[in-house]
Amino acid sequence: MKILEISKLLNAEVCWGEDRLESEVCSACGSDMMSDVLAFVKDQAVLLTGLVNSQVIRTAEMMDMRCVVFVRNKKPSEEMLDIAKESGIVVLASPMRMYDACGVLYANGLGDHGETANHE
Amino acid sequence: MSEPLVYTFLVDGDNFTSAGEASVKMKKNLRMLAIAPDIIRRVAIAMYEGEINMVIHAGGGTATVSVHNDKIEIVLEDKGPGIADVELAMREGFSTAPETIRNLGFGAGMGLPNMKRNTDSMTIESTVGVGTRITMTVNL
Ligand SMILES: Nc1ncnc2c1ncn2[C@@H]1O[C@H](COP(=O)(O)OP(=O)(O)O)[C@@H](O)[C@H]1O
Ligand SMILES: [Mg+2]
Question: ∠ CA A108-A114-A119 to the nearest 5 degrees?
Answer without folding.
Answer: 85
